[in-house]
Amino acid sequence: MKKYIFYIILSFLITTSVSARKTGCEGNCENGFGKWTYTDKTTYEGNWVGTQKHGQGT
Does 10 map to a domain? Predict the structure, then answer.
């Protein structure tokens, strides 16, 4: 019974942690082209140089 409850809790934690990640980088946000989504859901999509936004972007 303990094993069953453990697996239920574990699966819940895994699914919530995967679905919770809605912010951060998609692509190459170090040196290249990537899209960063902020916590307020605004985004920057464009070039990155040394982890800094570079150029106009959108």
Answer: no
Please state the pTM of the whole predicted model.
Answer: 0.56
CB atoms within 10 A of CB 25: 14
Task: Give the SS3 label for residue 31.
Answer: strand
Q: Report the distance separating Cα 16 and Cα 27, nearest Å.
A: 23
Contact between residue 37 and residue 24 where contact means Cβ atoms under 8 Å apart: yes
Residues 25 and 16: beta-carbon distance below 8 Å: no
21 Ramachandran zone, left/alpha/beta (phi>0; psi -120 to 50): beta
Residue 38 lies in a domain: yes
Q: Find the domain containing 45 and state its range.
A: 23-50
**pLDDT, averaged in runs of 10, over the chain (58 residues):** 80 58 82 92 93 85
